[in-house]
Write a structure and sequence with these properties.
The structure is a single chain. By secondary structure, the protein is α+β, with helices and mostly antiparallel strands. It has 3 domains: 18-193, no CATH class; 201-327; 333-414, Orthogonal Bundle (Non-ribosomal Peptide Synthetase Peptidyl Carrier Protein, Chain A). The protein has helices spanning 18-24, 35-46, 77-88, 101-105, 174-181, 201-217, 220-229, 234-262, 267-294, 302-321, 334-349, 353-357, 370-384, 395-398, 401-414, and strands at residues 90-94, 115-120, 136-144, 149-154, 158-160, 163-165, 168-173, 187-193. Helix 11 crosses helix 13 (370-384).
């Protein structure tokens, strides 16, 4: 993982294949270097937005990797890979670690499908970490040209101390790839598709709330923050805290994106977006703190207070979201349901919400055809945790914002939910 600041940037040209198309539809700056390439596989297999399910549970579960070390929210890659399987609809089978490049390449599927690999970023020449920093990093490797060459697909996006990492697809000679991975541990992960788990939004909010209530009760945020504030080596503590806030920042941005898709236009979606922006600001402040400490100056003392406040605010939002009358339940007011419908259609079409709101017949909008109608219906069912009756799916109703609003109010009021 990288502790550097994240800023959006111009992406390099990508080839027109399913993996590259998936990258174009992902905000790769909201994912870490293990998640990001699994997200590409999921969206390529199950459609755009599948990867957002990784943001449904904004967990805070710090661990102490070894006695005497600072706590970290970073998961070991094997644990993280296991936790990604169900939401992404992927079966990810990690094989034994290999240290010989040719042995790794023999595991590449002959049909040209990708092998997901976690290895050392220090060995990957398309990354700015190459030759500079050792860290676990994922990449997708595919055999091309009958096995003579190997294609590396890496969607990682981050500003690093050594330059910018951007999504890339590059083709290397097989012998070159074998040399890159010789003598360095690499974990091959075979990939199979599975049905993605259906997200029950209200139940997810309830699970988040229970977990958050426990964190508030035992003040996990206070203990975690104090470990960095009170550490005798503030240079080490600030450097570690930069990585922590980088990881927490990305996870909260991903949670905000999931909330915006699952509960578009809601007060909860707006609140999580504001909270994500606050995390982004803290990550920048921690970067400044590291630079100051490196120059022999004291770190800004407010970073620890702000960190604890943001963690507690995360938990309070999660608890509040599951209470009756908040979170998803607030959408049962007609005006709020209308906002949700407009936002959902605008997101599906990639157009301005004002354009949707001003249109009587959605079929007149560019791109609104059968596929987009179906995607809109499915998103609204997921957002309200309902299942529209087949007899209610009349094209005349589905082509109007008002028709969709009426359908949601009628179905939600009848309590017709997903099973």
């Amino acid at each position: 993982m990288s502790p550097a600041r994240t800023t959006p940037g111009t992406r390099p040209a990508l080839t027109a294949d399913p993996l590259s198309e998936a990258i174009r539809g992902i905000d790769t700056t909201a994912l870490d270097c293990v998640q990001v390439n699994a997200a590409v596989l999921a969206d390529a297999a199950h459609g755009p937005g599948t990867h957002l399910r990784l943001g449904a549970r904004p967990r805070f579960a710090p661990r102490v990797p070894r006695p005497g070390r600072l706590p970290t929210v970073e998961q070991p890659p094997p644990e993280q890979i296991r936790s990604m399987e169900q939401p992404l609809g992927l079966t990810l089978e990690a094989g034994p670690t290999v240290t010989k490049g040719e042995e790794l390449l023999r595991l590449l599927p002959e049909d040209g499908s990708p092998l997901y690999v976690v290895a050392d970023a220090h060995r990957m020449p398309w990354l700015p970490y190459h030759g500079h920093q050792h860290m676990d990093h994922s990449v997708l490797l595919r055999s091309v040209e009958g096995g003579a060459r190997v294609e590396a697909v890496d969607a990682y996006d981050n500003e690093t101390p050594y330059g910018r990492a951007e999504p890339v697809v590059c083709v290397l000679e097989r012998a070159e790839v074998a040399t890159l991975f010789d003598g360095s541990p690499a974990m091959p992960v075979t990939v199979r598709h599975a049905p993605p788990a259906l997200t029950d939004v209200p139940r997810t909010l309830e699970d988040n709330a229970r977990e958050a209530a426990r964190l508030l009760e035992d003040d996990a945020a206070g203990r975690y923050t104090a470990a960095f504030r009170d550490h005798p080596d503030q240079s080490e503590a600030c450097t570690a805290l930069l990585l922590e806030t980088w990881l927490l920042n990305r996870s909260r941005r991903l949670h905000a994106a999931w909330t915006a898709r699952s509960l578009p236009g809601s007060a909860l979606a707006r609140a999580t977006a504001e909270q994500a922006a606050a995390w982004d600001a803290l990550a920048g402040q921690c970067y400044l703190a590291v630079r100051r400490v490196q120059r022999g100056r004291p770190a800004p003392p407010h970073i620890h207070t702000t960190l604890a406040e943001l963690l507690r605010a995360d938990a309070r939002f999660a608890v509040e979201a599951a209470r009756p009358g908040t979170g998803g339940a607030m959408h049962h007011q007609p005006a709020q349901v209308r906002e949700t419908v407009v936002d959902t259609v605008a997101d599906v079409l990639g157009t301005h919400r004002e354009t949707v709101a001003a249109t009587d017949d959605l079929s007149r909008l560019d791109g609104f055809a059968s596929f987009q109608m179906v995607e809109t219906v499915e998103r609204l069912e997921d957002a309200y945790n309902v299942q529209f009756a087949p007899g209610d799916l009349e094209p005349a109703a589905l082509r109007r914002v008002g028709g969709l609003v009426d359908l949601i109010l009628r179905t939600a009021g009848a309590g017709v939910v997903h099973q």
